[in-house]
Amino acid sequence: xxxxxxxxxxxxxxxxxxxxxxxxxxxxxxxxxxxxxxxxxxxxxxxxxxxxxxxxxxxxxxxxxxxxxxxxxxxxxxxxxxxxxxxxxxxxxxxxxxxxxxxxxxxxxxxxxxxxxxxxxxxxxxxxxxxxxxxxxxxxxxxxxxxxxxxxxxxxxxxxxxxxxxxxxxxxxxxxxxxxxxxxxxxxxxxxxxxxxxxxxx
Length: 202
Known about the structure:
Helices cover about 30% and strands about 20% of the residues. The chain is built from six helices and ten strands. Strands 1-2-3-4-5-6-7-8 form an eight-stranded parallel β-barrel, surrounded by four helices. Strand 4, helix 4 (about 85-90) and strand 5 form a beta-alpha-beta unit.
């Protein structure tokens, strides 16, 4: 089972996550309390091993800006959290992770429109498009056809519920941000415990 630590804003947390076994690091370039500037993200990404996924999170950004940030930072994947169309997704130069805020079964209909390999299923939208620390009813996925996509499960995950989430959904990857924070900052011990739990059971 793969693990993505999202909302990284400093090199110490990024390297601690990688040392603990993280497979992907997420940088938020959209409006968020975890938003990072391009130069800082570039400097952090430069310290990461080549085999680590470096994911840029965007919300309704222009193609030109996404491509520019991708080149400067050295991103490997683009995560789209807004209302981006399937054609927009296809126009990007990097592989796309399409994020969906799940309100109920009807939310999953949108996956049929997207020509992407990765589908990130997040909790309902709150103050921000994602990263609100809200989960959704994982049971609604039991009979859904996810069209062979690699599912990344996000939304309200933490060390207390991630094993149950994995058991129910069997995703390709789990994605955590607020669930490994203390007082709004990445907690290196929580990161390690979260990753250890996921890796031990997979």
